[in-house]
Write a structure and sequence with these properties.
Chain lengths: ~450, ~450
């Protein structure tokens, strides 16, 4: 046990499997003063749209939001890299008083003339609504003058949680969808959604589908291109990963164009294979696709299995803590870690909902701690109490793990190593192995014989 | 009306600055058992935490008052108080440093008013000190937030008990933890007592933990801040800061504590001024250890001077850092051909001219309010030998195939940003060795001969 205190209000968002009735509070705003690991509405929008590489991403507001999100993700592009630039209207005191519309207009015109993007997204930060800027009108005017879609993203930071930012981004994207030609799109065509091409993951996934004989119209939004998004309504299935971030767009596309969607994950052998089989099953009139899929899955697994067993031998019996943005990723991680012989003792997410946590509860072993919208103190407390050997999370969780002498695997948007697909599973095993079995931990204070 | 029409609007592309609450967070992480609280949206604290963590590789807890739509309409008072109470329950701090954000400033939140009467009388004696600072991100940059927070802490805690002390107040500016440790060593070696604010040398650069620490140990002791009004003198670094409101000046005005406003002690010239000030204040000679350190540094200047002579450097970062680096570079014969900062004090040019009077004749470009696109454009015109500044110049350096010497903040693409020493003779020695060797390595690598001797 530790002496780390847990706030009374927060106790409702923590569940110990096997203890009491499961009634986890979630889907709520963060508690003031709790030090949530979540960001804001703007962050939600920014992460969804960020990888669209040939679009201009202009952040309307004072400088901070643009500075902190400059080249922040490992979302790769096979061509243009405009998304790796950071553009801000950099509002100052006089703009707060007189309004920022003139500056927004001038900035858009200047940047569009300089960089010739295929579309522009204008992110509204906290103060835009408050100072009363009519961003929609400015966007409309520039759209007309410059002949490219200029789309407002209503992502004022305080207007909800990161999830509301996802929705705002999806609504902006939905204005692009349906504006391109679908003429040459075939029958067996999908959109890959909620895949951001971190470390080239979308390329791996796309290749699997293409090898199955399936056409990929657009990836939302990894290695994204405006032209593909415009014609994405020509696909006959939306394959949605990272459900929280892009589900809203899948729903809009279902309502508007009748395109069904399925939910998948590309992490771990089990979920990766299911993602391919589910898509093959959808196109059941083409038996060739299923046949191909079986071949691919078999070959891919055969190729990595011996290595995987070797890692499993070294990692069996280790205990892991998982804290990620969306709960869907936690499900996959639990399965993937289990396939390496690792037990999960803590599982949590920033944005999971009731259904997600019910699934999580069913998946977890007795004694596992489930957390919604956790903070550093809670994560530390349960890592110590549960004796975690490994933490899977993002940059903000990394120093917590290291300070406590716990191994760490980065599974967030800044990672440089592809963890999706079959090759990703081996990379994950390598990543985990290289941290868990590192000799440096013998110097951690708890084990250091010198101290 | 005419002046209004003249305003030319231009977007900022790849900013060479951060927002002011980040600077304030630095300061509030550098006081004993202190925690920063940002009055604004959840994203403000999370983005700033992430940014600081990527540099320091340390846990950086920053709380937030979590604005919602209702808060933005009806005011953030209730949220702020709830945040304070929850912080006390979780962290049991001695000080909570509240920094505002663009959001709370735009809706006109008055933090001191909100918290008036909300103090020790209402709670028990463990109620922490609360210091608030106004840091709207639409005004100034992170360095203004930093100095503003230092001043706010001194303003609300320092007193004069009329006890004569030998304490020297050190207002270091935004330096690395290794710099802060070195400054403390120097001042201690003058056998004098000191109060350095902030001091995140332990809190943002510490060892692994045996047990979990809600707030890492270390930081300026609050008693030390309280006794600043009785100090023998203050030393404050930054030639730009010398022209602005500051903690040192506040102590002079309120308690008649003499203030030595010096440049950041980077290189021999600026470090000499620092040691001279310490000698004057303490009445003690410069310790032999530093005479030796200075001697070895100048010896290395002699050994390496030809390699660096007339090399051209692009320098960028906070205005006072740029000024300090320009002073160091020019004293060894390197031309800081571009001196750029995202700051807009209006003073950078004059400060560079004070150090390098013929800067304009040599063709030195001084750019205030610069962003990295502008720095890139200027750099392309002059084909520099190297870049010196934080990690954010990497893209330009890579594109131009020129070395980047990483200094300052943030260093997101290398280990050890916290361990770089910039100040003192020791810092100059590190910088000089790295720069000389970088130049030598470039020559060696591009030489068809591949000399194995210098």
């Amino acid at each position: 046990m530790t002496n780390i205190p847990i706030l009374k209000e927060r106790k409702k968002q923590i569940y110990h499997k096997g203890e009491g009735v499961f009634d986890l509070t979630c889907d709520t705003k963060s508690l003031a003063g709790s030090v949530s690991q979540r960001a804001c509405v703007f962050c939600g929008s920014r992460v969804v749209l960020y990888p669209i590489a040939d679009a201009l991403h202009l952040i309307h507001g004072p400088i901070g939001c643009a500075s902190y999100t400059w080249d922040i993700r490992g979302a790769l592009s096979s061509g243009p890299e405009l998304h790796r630039m950071s553009f801000s209207t950099d509002l100052r005191e006089r703009d707060i008083i007189f309004g920022g519309e003139k500056k927004l207009y001038a900035s858009l015109v200047q940047l569009i003339d300089t960089y010739r993007p295929n579309a522009a997204f204008v992110y509204c930060t906290c103060i835009i609504g408050i100072i009363g800027d009519d961003v929609d009108s400015v966007c409309k005017r520039v759209t007309e003058e410059k002949g490219i879609p200029v789309l407002p993203v209503h992502s004022e930071g305080f207007k909800g949680t990161k999830k509301d930012g996802y929705k705002a981004a999806c609504e902006s994207l939905s204005m692009l969808v349906g504006t391109g030609s679908v003429e040459d799109i075939g029958k067996y065509a999908i959109n890959i959604m909620g895949e951001f091409n971190i470390a080239g993951e979308a390329w791996t996934i796309k290749e699997y589908y293409e090898n199955m004989g399936i056409e990929v119209v657009a990836v939302f939004t990894g290695d994204g291109r405006v032209e593909n998004i415009k014609r994405s309504h020509g696909a006959s299935l939306n394959v949605v990963q990272c459900s929280g971030s892009i589900l809203r767009l899948a729903q809009i596309m279902e309502e508007k164009y009748g395109i069904p969607y399925i939910r998948v994950s590309y992490f771990g052998i089990e979920d990766m294979s299911k993602a391919l089989y589910d898509v093959a099953a959808h196109f059941k009139d083409n038996l060739g696709i299923m046949k191909k899929t079986k071949e691919i899955v078999r070959n891919e697994i055969d190729a990595i299995y011996p290595d995987l067993l070797r890692y499993k031998k070294a990692l069996s019996g280790k205990k892991a803590a998982i804290y990620v943005g969306g709960a869907f990723k936690a499900f996959s991680m639990i399965k993937a870690l289990r396939s390496l012989g690792i037990d999960v003792v803590l599982a949590g997410s920033q944005t999971g909902n009731k259904d997600d946590y019910a699934v999580l509860r069913d998946m977890c072993d007795e004694g596992t701690v489930i957390l919604d919208d956790a903070n550093p103190l809670e994560l530390s407390k349960y890592c110590i109490e549960k004796g975690a050997d490994l933490f899977v999370g993002g940059v903000k969780e990394r120093p917590i793990a290291y300070k406590l002498g716990i191994a760490f695997c980065d599974h967030n948007h800044e990672r440089k190593i592809s963890l999706a697909g079959y090759s990703g599973m081996i990379n994950l095993a390598k990543e985990v192995y290289s941290s868990v079995t590192s000799p440096v931990w013998k110097f951690a204070p708890a084990k250091d014989s010198f101290l | 009306m005419k002046t209004q029409e003249k305003i030319e609007y231009k977007a900022t592309s790849n900013a060479c600055k951060l927002c002011s609450p980040l600077g304030a967070s630095f300061v509030f992480r550098g006081i004993e058992r202190s925690i920063p609280l940002l009055h604004g949206s959840q994203g403000c604290s999370t983005y700033i935490r992430r940014y600081l963590i990527s540099h320091f590789n340390e846990p950086v807890d920053i709380a937030c008052s979590n604005f919602t739509e209702e808060t933005a309409v009806f005011g953030g008072g209730a949220n702020l108080k709830l945040a304070v109470e929850n912080i006390i329950k979780q962290y049991n701090p001695k000080l909570i440093g509240i920094a505002t954000t663009c959001l709370s400033e735009t809706i006109g939140e008055d933090v001191p008013m909100i918290l008036k009467g909300y103090n020790k009388e209402k709670f028990d004696e463990n109620f922490p000190e609360i210091v608030s600072v106004s840091t709207p991100s639409f005004s100034g940059t992170h360095i203004d937030g930093f100095h503003g927070a230092v001043r706010a802490v001194v303003d609300s805690i320092a007193v004069k008990k009329k006890i004569s002390t030998k304490q020297i107040n050190i207002f270091s500016g935004m330096l690395s933890p290794a710099d802060l440790r070195h400054l403390k060593e120097i001042v201690s070696d003058f056998s004098t007592d000191y109060a350095m604010l902030p001091d995140y040398s332990d809190t943002l650069d510490g060892p692994l933990w045996m047990e979990y620490q809600e707030i890492p140990e270390g930081g300026t002791k609050i008693e030390k801040i309280a006794s600043m009004g009785d100090a023998a003198a203050s030393i404050e670094f930054g030639r730009i800061l010398a022209e602005e409101e500051s903690a040192g000046k506040l102590l002079t005005d309120r308690f008649q504590v003499p203030c030595y406003s010096l440049g950041l002690p980077i290189g021999v010239n600026e470090t000499d001024a620092f040691f001279n000030a310490l000698s004057i204040i303490t009445g003690r000679p410069v310790p032999e250890k530093y005479i030796q350190e200075r001697g070895r540094l100048i010896d290395s200047y002699a050994d390496g001077h030809k390699y660096v002579f007339d090399a051209r450097a692009v320098v960028y970062g906070e205005e006072d850092l740029v000024t300090g680096l320009a002073s160091f570079l020019s004293e060894v014969g390197i031309i800081p051909i571009i001196c750029a900062s995202g700051g807009e004090s209006g003073l950078l040019k004059q400060k560079i001219l004070d150090i390098i009077p013929d800067a304009e004749n040599i063709g030195i470009r001084i750019i205030e309010g610069a962003d990295f696109v502008e720095i890139n454009e200027e750099a392309k015109k002059i084909d520099p030998d190297f870049f010196i500044g934080n990690s954010k110049g990497y893209r330009i350096a890579r594109e131009m195939k020129k070395p980047l010497i990483r200094v300052g903040f943030p260093i997101h693409d290398r280990l050890g940003g916290a361990r770089i020493i910039h100040v003192g003779y020791r810092g100059a020695q590190q910088l000089f060795d790295i720069i000389s060797n970088t130049i030598i390595a470039t020559r060696q690598d591009t030489s068809p001969v591949g000399y194995t001797y210098m």
